[in-house]
Amino acid sequence: MASIGQSAYPDLLPDFRNLGVMARVLVAVNGLAAAGVLFATPSPGGALEHFMNTAAYLEPLLLIELLVLAAVSPLLARLPYWTGYAVIVGIVLAVVAAYHTLVMRLPAVPQPSLGPVLLLAALVAATLLAYLRLRAKAYSPALVEARLQALQARIRPHFLFNSLNAVLSLIRRDPKRAERALEDLAEVFRTLMSEPRQFVRLADEIALLERYAGIEQLRLGERLRITWELDAAPSDALLPPLVLQPLLENAVFHGVEPGTAAGDVLVRIERRGDRVLARIENPYVADQQRRVGNRMALENIRERLTLFFDAEARIRTSADGRRYKVEIEMPYKSERA
Amino acid sequence: MIKVFIADDEEPARERLKELLGDIAGEVPTTVAGEARNGMETLERLPQSGAGLLLLDIQMPGMGGLEVARHLAALPEPPTIVFVTAHDRHAVEAFELNALDYLLKPVRAERLAAALKKASVPHREQLAKAAQNAREYLSVAERNRIVLVPVREIIFLRAEQKYVTLRTRNREHLIEEPLVSLEREFAATFVRIHRNCLVARSAIRGFERGGGSDDEPHWVVVLDGLDERLPVSRRQWPGLKELVAEK
């Protein structure tokens, strides 16, 4: 079921294993319940008691719903959007029905009748799905824009012209190396200028890092020393494009170029359980010539990580006077899951 | 034959300039008198190299090209300078505005030839206007040598007729820059205490009543690391009092 025009951002069912989605569902449903109770009871004191009773019925149900949806979420992701939509509403109703029959057997809990409860559940589920879809839609243009901004911030003219200059100097002395350098440069720019995509494989991002590093090496020679620790990097992990390359570029621009001595840069990417950790370190050089620019790239990456992973990704920076470190922590997602 | 000195932190960039100089040797004959990888090296090597023209990269580690040029201006026979930059929008704007010669990387042979022919010795004022940051050093030319004095080591600057005396904990130098422009450039680090004197804010330990023999009592500055006391003029006192209150 191809969506119109195959846009880069088709409708996606919410990922119920995501903490952000869970939190939104919990808050929304409880908010609705509280509002309903306020309308139904005249006195505030009665409302509180009524709400507690409702909550006693509602919370276990809500948690069970979320657990079930989280469990089937990977299967749902393979369905076309509207089929998945219907299936989710169906699951919600089925769980409500089962839960309701079970609860009817307990004497202590107040007993609403099944019909209205099912109707209410269907309404709430449909509304929440619509809300999550709209929310995703609202963020898609932001995502494209963020990416464009990133693009502009990242092609530092400084890098482009210095690299071209370095290649020019090689053409007579070492034509083979000049060819390789131009190929690297072409590939870096192909990636930078490619159609906006939602995510790439980590292996592709690492390839980009290596091409980029090759060019910088040519320019800076022995001044740039990069240590790669990639043995434990999960090459099939998915992440938003161009999350790591700007960080390496920053490391070179702020940590190596302004220094008169050689600069050591560390790139370490590893998987720990269901998390992917990436760390980039560079020497800390106090330099008034090039303070600006770093913050912007970091903010942009943070924003895109949030759009892609919601609340489950983190980016941290620290400096101890000698080294500057950026660490990214994100959930391990692969194409198979 | 022009003796050219090349200053750039990237080895390929220096190689490229040498190649180009070779290419245009028929039109503009040159020899390479020396090379440097950063600002400090340039200041160390250029005066002895006998170079008359400097191809100077703007973005270099340690000390940028513009500050290098400002120190070279202290030499008795400063070289003509052509700045080179890959991309520095602000610098380029400032250069245009102050009529300084510059080339953009990658440099073309024709442009280089033209620049070598018309290159000039930049004036101090031109350079000062083009600069965005205060210098980190002040420079004193001694025969074929440039002595750099870190600004953070300077305790006070005092105008004396044609020169300004620059005082550090251990030494004294004479420099040929007007006190007014020094005051403007280093407003963040120095404060004026007298018509003829700027003192480093960090070096002020306190104030004392000077033993004025005549009518009115006046104040003197007590310095960190120097026994000398400097008189405060009546006009500067109100502003300085606030400084003391802040400390």
Report on the structure:
The complex is a heterodimer of chains A (337) and B (247). In chain A, helix 4 (114-154) packs antiparallel against helix 9, helix 5 (157-173) packs antiparallel against helix 6 and helix 6 (175-193) crosses helix 7. Chain A has helices at 19-40, 44-76, 81-104, 114-154, 157-173, 175-193, 202-220, 245-256, 294-309; strands at residues 200-201, 224-229, 238-239, 263-272, 275-283, 314-319, 323-331. With 337 residues, chain A is an alpha+beta fold. Helix content of chain B is 30%, strand content 33%. Chain B is built from eight helices and 15 strands. Chain B is elongated. Chain B starts with a strand and ends with a helix. The model of chain B has no long low-confidence stretch (mean pLDDT 90). The A-B interface holds A 156-158, 160-162, 164-166, 168-170, 172-173, 218-221, 223, 257-260, 288-289 and B 9-13, 15-16, 19, 37-38, 40, 59, 61-62, 64, 86-88, 104-107, 133.
Short description:
The complex is a heterodimer of chains A (337) and B (247). Chain A is of the alpha+beta class and 337 residues long.
List the helices and strands and how they pair.
The complex is a heterodimer of chains A (337) and B (247).
Chain A: H1 19-40, H2 44-76, H3 81-104, H4 114-154, H5 157-173, H6 175-193, E1 200-201, H7 202-220, E2 224-229, E3 238-239, H8 245-256, E4 263-272, E5 275-283, H9 294-309, E6 314-319, E7 323-331
Parallel strand pairs in A: 2-4
Antiparallel strand pairs in A: 1-3, 4-5, 5-7, 6-7
Helix pairs in contact in A: 1-2, 2-3, 3-4, 4-9, 5-6, 5-7, 6-7, 7-8
Chain B: E1 2-7, H1 11-23, E2 30-36, H2 39-49, E3 53-57, H3 65-72, E4 80-85, H4 89-97, E5 102-104, H5 109-118, H6 124-130, E6 137-142, E7 145-150, E8 154-160, E9 163-168, E10 172-175, H7 179-185, E11 190-194, E12 197-200, E13 204-210, E14 218-223, E15 229-231, H8 237-246
Parallel strand pairs in B: 1-2, 1-3, 3-4, 4-5
Antiparallel strand pairs in B: 6-7, 8-9, 8-12, 9-10, 11-12, 13-14, 14-15
